Amino acid sequence: MSYVEVTRLAKAFGDNQVFKAIDFSIEQGEFVTLLGPSGCGKSTLLRSIAGLDDVDHGEIWVDGENMTHLAPQKREIGMVFQSYALFPNMTVHDNIGFGLRMKGVSKAQAEQDIARFIDLVELSGKQRHYPHELSGGQRQRVALARALVMQPRILLLDEPLSALDAKIRKNLRLQIRDIQKELNLTTIFVTHDQEEAMLMSDRIFLMNQGQIVQQGKPEQIYTQPKNQFVAGFMGHYNLVEANFARHWLGVDAQSTLAIRPESIYVREAGRQYPTHVSAPINGKITQHQLLGNVIRYTIMVGPQTLTVDLLNRSSERLLAPGSYIDILFNLNEIQPVRE
Ligand code: ADP
Ligand code: MG
């Protein structure tokens, strides 16, 4: 049995069946991300595990114990939300210590624990500050310390980074991952951001409309999407129909193919390409977008619009819209996908 086992979990709000048979298991110390579009049921699933929403059917087991009908405060689960939900009239120190006081931990032990977690989330020197004196990132670190100080069996994080600026978000996601590893803490993280999920997770559970559509390691989901939804969500995959693939690529496709933008190359004199590439196919550049180290081109081949990512080497000129170029497909990186 795994550390976390969820079986046949079902939850409806009135007529709205959010999910009806969710199954998964998570190992101790794993960092798993629930990834999916807004409204697919991520928060409801997390709240069900925390005991904040009652489930209609199914079971939730943690560390060999059936938690399905246990009161939230008895589950020993830590939770951090997008909104920090700190007590505004309490200092950082008191916010972090609140749960320990409720639990009846001795003052000496509480002080030791508070100090340890303030240090761990790098808020030393901020003990006496109030939430309104902190930045968003610092407030979220207080919320994290407040959850961690209780030494939960599982940490649940519901879009904790979504309200923060890009730069703070990038720092904090690495920091959360480091702390999680250091504590070997079983963690379920929720996001709708595939880059965040790819970067942070041991495994991703990709959800759509109340179902886990695909689960696996980030690179597995990214390179082997099993249906069109996954391909569309995980990257800027090109979806090309079997007819196009047969006619233009000369491959014997039976279904739609998913092709990543970085596995199509623009042919240039003197450059080496992988061995299994298609014959050159002429296309017309219609657009380009500068994404920093990558230039994303839109290229028309016959009736098909393709997205092609090229590394932005500063020495090279941009390919101008309207120009014709030859492109090559890496035939090893073409993935058949179901509807
Ligand atoms: P996500 O977190 O993936 O955006 P949610 O779990 O918040 O999705 O929502 C899933 C579905 O459940 C949505 O249709 C939402 O409207 C509905 N829902 C969520 N919470 C409640 C609630 N407390 N009462 C009624 N419907 C809810
Ligand atoms: Mg949500």
UniProtKB/TrEMBL annotation:
SUPFAM superfamilies assigned to the protein according to its UniProt record, in alphabetical order: MOP-like (SSF50331), P-loop containing nucleoside triphosphate hydrolases (SSF52540)
Entry coiled-coil feature ranges: none
Domain of life from the UniProt record: Bacteria
Cited InterPro entries: AAA+_ATPase, ABC_SmlMolc_Importer, ABC_transporter-like_ATP-bd, ABC_transporter-like_CS, Mo/tungstate-bd_C_term_dom, P-loop_NTPase, Transp-assoc_OB_typ2
GO molecular function terms noted in the UniProt entry: ATP binding; ATP hydrolysis activity
Keywords linked to the UniProt accession: ATP-binding, Cell membrane, Membrane, Nucleotide-binding, Transport
Leader sequence segment: none
Any one of the GO BP annotations: quaternary ammonium group transport
Residues annotated as domain ABC transporter: 4-234
One Pfam family here: TOBE_2
PANTHER family to which the protein is assigned, alphabetical: SPERMIDINE/PUTRESCINE IMPORT ATP-BINDING PROTEIN POTA, SPERMIDINE_PUTRESCINE IMPORT ATP-BINDING PROTEIN POTA
Protein name: Putative spermidine/putrescine transport system ATP-binding protein
Lineage summary: Bacteria, Pseudomonadati, Pseudomonadota, Gammaproteobacteria, Vibrionales
